[in-house]
Write a structure and sequence with these properties.
Blueprint: E1 3-9, H1 17-27, E2 32-38, H2 44-50, E3 56-61, H3 66-70, E4 75-76, H4 78-83, E5 88-92, E6 95-99, H5 102-112, E7 121-125, H6 129-141, E8 145-150, H7 153-163, E9 169-173, H8 179-187, E10 190-193, E11 220-223, H9 232-239, E12 243-245, H10 248-263, H11 269-285
Parallel strand pairs: 1-2, 1-3, 4-6, 7-8, 7-10, 8-9, 10-11, 11-12
Antiparallel strand pairs: 3-5, 5-6
Helix pairs in contact: 1-10, 1-11, 5-6, 5-10, 6-7, 10-11
Bound molecules: NADP nicotinamide-adenine-dinucleotide phosphate.
NADP nicotinamide-adenine-dinucleotide phosphate binds at residues 63, 105, 126-131, 150-152, 155, 174, 194-197, 199, 202-204, 224-226, 247, 250-251, 254, 299.
């Protein structure tokens, strides 16, 4: 019997996961189909119930279902509980286990770039869904202090709650003129960008929340946005001599961790990166005025 893995989201048509996950399944000869299911919020409970069918290996969960899915599974692990959201469900022994591999995606992307935040201050720009995994990853990595800058102060304050007692958090305005943000940027070894500014088809494709003047040489700048691959935030950081890390590495590593849980096999990372880049280039090619190198789709 051919097995099935599904993506639960709304919408799902733009997702890269079906492309790189199917490529990885095929490359290892796993007899499984990765299907994208567009599920409105009112249909989530029924969709999760279908994951209990025998053919199901599990699922990915994406916007807007990550938080709601946490309460629909049988066994969320400590990372899912800590983040307050799940992105991966695995059917095992008749039960739905769940975790949040976005945390692993952040950790691996930073490790590959040689960034070590243990005992060091970090700045996080943005406080949406993706930022939650960053906070937990910084806590697990032993960062000394986290400054969260966000447009809506209440969202940043809510994130401080999931940092726990081990990771002291300061909250400030997402404003390049803000003295607290400038001081935190001057000290941080790592600046993570998790707003949707600079994202293709996002609120402002050409914007970075912080200019080059706030970065310094030797600092690492990590953008969760991965379309385009070179975002305005990364271009600003690069201009100041900072090291840059794009969001595609996080996307692939969260997917690879999910793949391991569903199949019990190591994910073929090269196959996944190639498939994702090919899909981005195809989309760019079909979109007027977008160069292939920039990609051409939102997440
Ligand atoms: P989200 O939950 O909607 O959060 C959006 C964030 O952007 C919030 O902090 C929001 O601030 C801020 N924002 C939106 N418009 C803004 C504006 N005009 N000015 C200033 N701030 C603004 O989105 P998300 O799921 O966290 O995703 C954020 C980005 O991360 C997206 O580009 C997504 O593609 C990317 N992402 C990447 C990965 C990966 O694997 N690399 C994974 C997940 C997400 P407020 O709180 O004030 O609304």
């Amino acid at each position: 019997m051919t097995s099935t893995v599904v993506l639960l989201g709304h919408p799902v048509a733009h997702s890269l996961s079906p492309r790189f996950q199917q490529a990885a399944l095929d490359a290892l000869g796993v007899d499984a189909r990765y299907e994208a299911w567009d599920i409105a919020p009112e249909g989530l409970s029924a969709a999760v119930a279908r994951l209990r069918e025998r053919r199901m290996l599990g699922a990915n969960v994406t916007v807007p279902h990550k938080v709601a899915a946490l309460r629909l599974v049988d066994r969320p692990d400590h990372l899912a509980e800590r983040v307050g959201a799940v992105n991966t469900i695995v059917r095992r022994d008749g039960l739905l286990h769940a975790t949040n591999t976005d945390v692993h995606g952040v950790t691996r992307a930073l490790a590959e770039a040689g960034v070590d935040v243990r005992g060091q201050p970090v700045v996080l720009l943005g406080a949406g869904g993706a930022a939650r995994a960053v906070v937990v990853a910084m806590r697990e990595a032993g960062a000394a202090r986290l400054t969260i800058a966000n447009r809506t102060a209440a969202h940043a304050a809510a994130l401080a709650d999931i940092a726990g007692a081990d990771l002291p958090v300061d909250v400030c305005a997402l404003d390049a003129a803000d003295a607290s943000l400038r001081a935190a940027m001057a000290q941080a070894v790592l600046v993570v960008h998790s707003t949707s500014l600079g994202m293709r088809h996002g609120p402002d494709e050409h914007a970075t929340p912080v200019p080059a003047a706030l970065f310094h040489p030797g600092q690492a700048a990590f953008d969760l946005v991965y379309v385009p691959e070179r975002t305005p935030f990364l271009i600003a950081a690069e201009a100041a001599g900072a090291r840059t890390i794009g969001g595609l590495a996080m996307l692939i590593h969260q997917g690879a961790a999910a793949f391991r849980l569903w199949t019990g096999q190591e994910a073929p990372l090269d196959v996944m990166f190639d498939a994702a880049r090919t899909a981005l280039a195809e989309r760019a090619g079909s979109e007027p005025g977008v160069s292939a190198i920039d990609g051409g789709a939102s997440q």
